[in-house]
């Protein structure tokens, strides 16, 4: 039914794209555009967008049902409010709601009120105050004019001096006029910038798509900011994040504006920076972007006119949004020479034949006809769009047209889509690596990682590298950093068989804690790597949960590490877990001490099981055995549970004794058993006698040795056999050490003259 008369306000390629989409609707009766451009002359009307009275009079006289507003200025000035007085539906927010774009300081305060993440920001009207704040902030900033500036009121300085000049230019020299009488200084966000678009009727939300604009005039994002030199949609790899981003950046606008008495109707456009600390808001716009609109509108499969009319009349829920799935749209802007500072106008435009290039459309912006010829009347002249199955194909088709029109009068950036133009064809996922799984994994582990953080953690999960403030050790006279790197090894194969993942996460932390403890060091922070043949966010999450609990118990921060999918390197189903722990010790307290000599006693601390060593042999021994069957002598424990018992940390038991200077050396009994590890802490010329009758092997070791038939010397070389840590103690300090060590310990031997370990 042809029942809707529509007026579109604006004159650019964005408005041409809107008109094109509206004209495809079966509900359209008539469409007008004001003031339009050369491509829309037959439906153009001469209306001044600043003259709201005349616009309303035109709508009343023509019985316009819907006004679709393209640019932001009429919205900020209140055109939607004026139309509402005459009961004319308007697709666009009220003046109060449009303050999200009209005032950057309002947008920042709104975001703060509604917990929308963004940069550190401050507004100023005095250049001296602004410069003083910037000096104290002492980080790169972005200088923004508070009001509307047609996309040119943002300066990203490359130096402090350049930032100062921008502040003075805005506030003192008035280079932005009214728009720059108030400015914002904002922390410069670093990352990849994307845009997210949604349509709302004040309560409901239809999420359209992500897009990526290219603001700078020069290749590789160099040169001055412009209104936009090109865009594409959707952004590859963002599908899985779209709902989360909408919940974080779009939904609060709808609920927040409604709560504050200014229901928001129209397009919500959030500019978002994907930083190492998570997505953050750059800005809000209250209309479709240009050129983002040209890249998004061709992907809307449902009736665009019906969609915007439903939004403008508070019945968005009655319309179903459908987007073209598995399609990409690229948009490249052809600009006049001299743009954006001093574009040349009046140059003749020759439109090439595009009939043999499928999916391409040429949208007009700064064009008009003079004496029957098409000429340019502004800086951005045309936008060429193309829809294809992948982004690189869409760009290839677009550039066939753009390249035919570039000359001494017109130019275009040749690198639109440079970050993503091959991802849709040559993706990690097609190579066996699922980026979405990686994103989901990061999200799954974030809470566990952050639970270990304290005020010293400056950057952790999501960063390129962990950052830890070491000023906390300033009270030490001569602090030494001690680092340990190790891996869980093939114990993870049993963890997979038993679906017991938390323990192996704790294993790697505790193993490394013990490795720095033997040098007298206390743990400071830990970083991990979890690699698998195929990332399973839940499995990695459970591993990291275990790491987090172990870090909290040891008083160290889990900075968060690396997750990697290595289908070509690791066998199917396998997981590799490794990590690095950094600790600190006063130089005078470094272990082992030179005072160790023959006659020193050896104190054995019980192990909790195999810890993280001997599993290559243990797995062969139990091959074919039901791991859920009861372990002989295990008091109800299964074989699998005993094999996967967590590698314990000795820090809680030994910390007080180390602090009290009661221990001269520590040996962590890991790979190589007591034969290899104990001599590592003994001085040259010293060996050890170890009384093997001083402790009883735990049932799991009795079982493995009995089942395999290996001789005892080999067993002591492969397994810890129940002693996971050996302390070397001066006999004169033995009673004090036993009193302080927080568990039952045994004297298992003594230091002797000689070499190596002698089992008695």
Give an overview of the whole structure:
The protein is α+β, with helices and mostly antiparallel strands. It is 30% helix and 26% strand. Strands 9, 10, 13, 14, 15, 16, 17, 20 and 21 form a nine-stranded antiparallel β-sheet that branches. A hairpin with a 2-residue loop joins strand 14 and strand 15. Helix 14 runs parallel beside helix 17 and helix 16 runs parallel beside helix 17. The N and C termini lie far apart (99 Å). About 2% of the residues have low confidence.
Mean model confidence by pLDDT: 90
Helical fraction: 25-40%
What portion of the residues fall into strands of 2 or more residues?
Answer: 25-35%
What's the end-to-end separation, in Å?
99 Å
Global geometry:
elongated
Structural class: alpha+beta
Q: Report the uncertain regions.
A: 423-436
Radius of gyration: 34 Å
Main β sheet profile: 9 strands, antiparallel
Instruction: Count the E strands.
Output: 34
Task: Determine the number of helices (DSSP H or I, runs of at least 4 residues).
Answer: 24
Short overview:
By secondary structure, the protein is of the alpha+beta class. It has 24 helices and 34 strands. It is elongated, with a radius of gyration of 34 Å.
Helices and strands in order:
Layout: E1 4-10, H1 13-22, E2 28-35, H2 52-62, E3 66-69, H3 72-76, H4 79-85, E4 89-91, H5 99-102, H6 104-113, E5 121-124, H7 127-137, E6 141-145, E7 154-155, H8 160-171, E8 183-187, E9 192-200, E10 205-213, E11 216-218, E12 222-225, E13 230-233, H9 239-249, H10 251-259, E14 266-275, E15 278-285, H11 292-296, H12 304-312, E16 328-336, E17 360-364, E18 367-370, E19 373-376, E20 380-388, H13 391-405, E21 410-411, H14 435-450, E22 457-459, E23 467-468, E24 479-487, H15 491-498, H16 502-517, E25 522-532, H17 537-554, E26 557-558, E27 562-565, E28 575-586, E29 601-606, H18 615-621, H19 639-643, H20 651-659, E30 665-668, H21 673-677, E31 686-690, H22 699-708, H23 712-718, E32 723-729, H24 734-740, E33 746-753, E34 757-759
Parallel strand pairs: 1-2, 1-3, 3-4, 25-26, 25-27, 31-34
Antiparallel strand pairs: 5-8, 6-7, 6-8, 9-10, 9-14, 10-13, 11-12, 13-16, 14-15, 16-20, 16-21, 17-20, 18-19, 22-23, 24-28, 25-28, 29-32, 29-33, 30-32, 31-33
